[in-house]
Design goal:
Blueprint (H helix, E strand, L loop, with lengths): L18 E4 L5 E6 L5 E8 L2 E6 L2 E3 L2 E6 L7 E7 L2 E2 L4 E2 L13 E2 L39 E2 L22 E4 L1 H5 L13 H4 L2 H10 L3 E4 L9 H6 L22 H6 L1 H17 L3 E6 L16 H9 L2 E2 L2 E2 L14 H16 L5 E4 L7 E2 L2 E2 L4 H8 L7 E4 L19 E4 H21 L8 H7 L3 H4 L19 E3 L9 H4 L39 H21 L3 E5 L30 H19 L10 E2 L9 E5 L8 H4 L6 E6 L10 E7 L5 E4 L10 E6 L17 E4 L3 E7 L2
Parallel strand pairs: 12-13, 12-23, 13-14, 14-17, 17-20, 20-21, 21-22, 22-23, 24-25
Antiparallel strand pairs: 1-2, 2-6, 3-4, 3-7, 5-6, 7-11, 8-9, 10-11, 15-16, 18-19, 25-26, 26-27, 27-31, 28-30, 29-31
Helix pairs in contact: 10-11, 10-14, 14-15
């Protein structure tokens, strides 16, 4: 390293945290946390040459030094000298060029190469020896390098939309998958950050009616060994390599060629344009494991720096509560610092509006199991930078006691898997079971009603005794209601397949869950054009899809749609398409009549949700009082118009449920909503509730028996009786 790269005359003042902090001339300090390392070299790439400088100072686990010349575009990396004892989990190997965990940019996307492993591996990336032998292959020429970037950006008075939780509608999408086939995008922007910010895309999302875009991971990532062996890639991106740098492969070719600065600016431009269109940007983040995987994985960054510090081990053996072979250690102060700094960076410098935490239970684990008051969770919910952004937990992992839905601290919202399962059971699994067995039913309506009402059984668990009536520490919006997500069947496939078809994943269909709770309506998969049953089966599938969407979007809580479900997107029965970077996963934008009609149904449902504030109440619901109705109440009826009796709730053969959501008192134009849901196999004549319940004029606002809301006939309901189609939903407005 030339002497002018580091100013050795500067008095050493220890940095308080890891990372690179420099002025406009590239002068400042660099620090990295590696408590067990004997020595750390900062390595700068200049053309084909690599220049190294030993970090001379060590304080509190930080190796650090003063630096100069670290201007934007500079490529750098780290090499660590330390103990090599795989049996105890010590894997230091100075032959491996490591990524700075706090780097804001990376040089490029790279496949997983044998040179990245700390021990000797064979051509299939498996360890050569039972006792790992330290690899002498230098990775510098092939490694992904850290890149210095300039945080300055023209945000043009960017403002976060700050959508209230009770108005939030989440829309989960993959940057590439959503835009790759979009016909209105310039070819060079398809599949990219730039494409997602294009007016053709933001206009579609605005017309749909969603408010908050939840992006599958965009942190820089690398594929796992088993996918590399199969010739596949981790399309979803749940294999993080850097918690600060964005994934280069999702940028335009021009930005990738220009380098890390251009990639970052494309991401920021995407966020700015989504904000301009009124959308929040929520990032899916993976702080539970990394691309380094378990004990047989590569050394890309944290493992090579200090494996025992960053990863959870027991006497050197990796502990796996994530299903990936390894687990980041949330007990480590350096892991906590890394997570918090990453979150703050994306809020402060990239202006994102929130985060969805993958396998969030892991972040709350200590030696005793999950703790809602875990120091990392407490730090997240009390951090002044993060206090006004949305925090969403995936409240489980695969470890003991991993299912924690409803147990995260406020202000976390949580994916509600019970909503998913109970809605699928009512509309799909129960109907499939009845068709197979001829029995009257196995589910009934009780669980469905609980989910429609906001899942207070799950989200009031933390309430201490003595709270005033109607008050809770949490609100219905804490329940993220969903029926599909990136993981599992699409909505179309829920209605067309009862078994997974994951053969394309290369694991002989062993991967992915078999608990799909789906109903193929009489035929597995797609029907041939000449099949005489095709028209009838396809019509039934479309009706079920509309009814599932109505249940999702009219329930109390925060709804989440999965990209493409509103268009009937299929993954051909693949319920684990994490490695399918192709048409299996990409949204199909062809404007078929079926796709446009289903989209119109979603638009209408979201309009109804927006027009009726009783669907978005901030408190858990109370039983309705017919003499004094208000929007905080709910009432249930059977098909005769009588209030539901206790024995009816217990009847597994009951398949019709009527829900009354009273109007907001005194609001101009307000109307009561009556939602009729029928999982029955035959049409049902349903009577509206009798006095003293509302007796005003009733009109049909939505009927899922119709292919499109535009097909709805005008006029009021006659004789206070409504016909509900098999597997149908009818929504009525009743004048107060």
């Amino acid at each position: 390293m030339p002497a002018d790269r580091f100013d050795r005359a500067t008095p050493p003042v220890a940095p308080t945290s890891p990372g690179l902090v420099v002025d406009e001339q590239g002068r400042g300090t660099f620090a990295v946390a590696a408590p067990r390392a004997r020595a750390v070299d900062l390595c700068l790439r200049q053309g084909a040459a690599e220049h190294r400088q030993r970090l001379r100072h060590y304080d509190g686990g930080l190796h650090w030094d003063h630096v100069t010349g670290m201007t934007p575009g500079t490529r750098y990396g780290l090499r660590v000298d330390g103990p090599w004892d795989p049996g105890t989990g010590m894997l230091a190997n100075p032959r491996k060029l490591l990524l700075d965990p706090w780097a804001r940019g990376v040089s490029h996307s790279s496949p997983l190469l044998s040179a990245f492993f700390p021990f000797e591996v064979d051509a299939m990336l498996d360890r050569r020896d039972e006792v790992p032998q330290r690899s002498e292959v230098d990775s510098g020429d092939s490694a992904v390098w850290s890149v210095v970037v300039d945080d300055a950006f023209d945000w043009q008075d960017d403002l976060r939309p700050m959508v209230d939780w009770d108005a939030t509608v989440l829309y989960e999408l993959h940057v590439k998958g959503f835009t790759r086939l979009h016909p209105e995008l310039p070819p060079e922007q398809r599949g990219t950050y730039a494409g997602l910010g294009h007016p053709a895309v933001t206009g579609y999302l605005r017309d749909l009616g969603v408010t908050s875009i939840e992006l599958l991971p965009i942190h820089a990532a690398m594929d796992e060994p088993h996918l590399t062996r199969l010739g596949l890639t981790n399309y979803w991106g749940y294999s993080t390599m850097s918690y600060f740098a964005p994934e280069p492969s999702l940028a335009t070719a021009a930005a990738q060629q220009a380098g890390a600065q251009a990639v970052l600016e494309e991401v920021k431009t995407m966020v700015r344009r989504l904000h301009e269109a009124g959308f929040e940007v929520i990032l899916d983040v993976v702080y539970n494991h990394t691309a380094e995987g378990g004990g047989d994985g590569p050394s890309l960054s944290l493992r090579g720096l200090d494996n025992l510090e960053y990863y959870w081990t027991d006497h050197g053996v990796p502990q796996d509560v994530t299903g990936t072979g390894g687990t980041l250690d949330p007990r480590s102060v350096h892991t906590m610092d890394l997570v918090l700094a990453s979150l703050r960076y994306w809020v402060q410098e990239v202006h994102v509006d929130g985060f969805r935490f993958d396998l969030a239970t892991t972040l709350g684990r200590d030696d005793r199991g999950f703790r809602a008051d875990h120091p990392l969770l407490r730090a997240i919910v009390t951090d002044p930078v993060l206090r006004d952004v949305k925090l969403i937990a995936e409240p489980w992992d695969v470890g003991t006691g991993g299912w924690q839905t409803g147990n995260f601290p406020a202000p976390f919202a949580e994916w509600n898997d019970a909503f998913r399962d109970d809605v699928r059971a009512f509309w799909l699994a129960d109907r499939a079971a009845r068709e197979r067995t001829g029995e009257p039913g196995i589910g009934g309506v009780r669980d469905l009603a609980t989910r429609l009402a906001g899942s207070s059984d799950m989200f009031t668990r933390q309430d201490p005794p003595g709270l005033p009536e109607g008050r809770s520490l949490r609100a219905p919006w804490a329940s993220i209601n969903y029926v599909t997500a990136h993981d599992g069947f699409t909505l179309r496939d829920l209605t067309a397949y009862e078994s997974k078809h994951n053969e394309a994943n290369g694991e002989d269909n062993r991967d992915g869950t078999s608990d799909n709770r789906s109903f193929h309506h009489g035929h597995e998969g797609e029907l041939s054009p000449g099949d005489p049953r095709r028209e009838e089966i396809e019509a039934a599938r479309r009706r079920t899809a509309r009814s599932v969407l109505a249940t999702l979007l009219l329930a109390s809580g925060t709804p989440m749609l999965t990209a493409g479900d509103e268009r009937g997107r299929t993954q051909r029965g693949n319920n684990n398409a994490y490695c399918q970077d192709n048409e299996i996963s990409w949204v199909d934008w062809r404007r078929t009549a079926a796709a446009e009609r289903l989209r119109a149904t979603v638009v209408r449902l979201l309009q109804l949700r927006g027009e009726h504030p009783q669907l978005r109440t901030p408190h858990f619901l109370r039983p309705a009082d017919p003499e004094q109705l208000d929007a905080g109440q709910i009432a249930w009826f059977d098909e005769t118009g009588a209030p539901m009796a206790h024995e009816e709730w217990m009847d597994p053969a009951r398949h019709v449920l009527v829900m009354l959501r009273p109007a907001v008192h005194g609001r101009e134009g307000a109307e009561h909503l009556l939602v009729i849901l029928s999982g029955a196999a035959e049409p049902n004549e349903v009577r509206l509730p009798e006095a003293p319940w509302p007796q005003g004029a009733a009109k049909v606002l939505l009927d899922t028996a119709l292919e499109s809301p535009e097909d709805l006939p005008p006029g009021p309901v006659g004789d206070r009786t409504v016909t509900v189609a098999p597997g149908g939903v009818v929504v009525l407005g009743i004048a107060p």
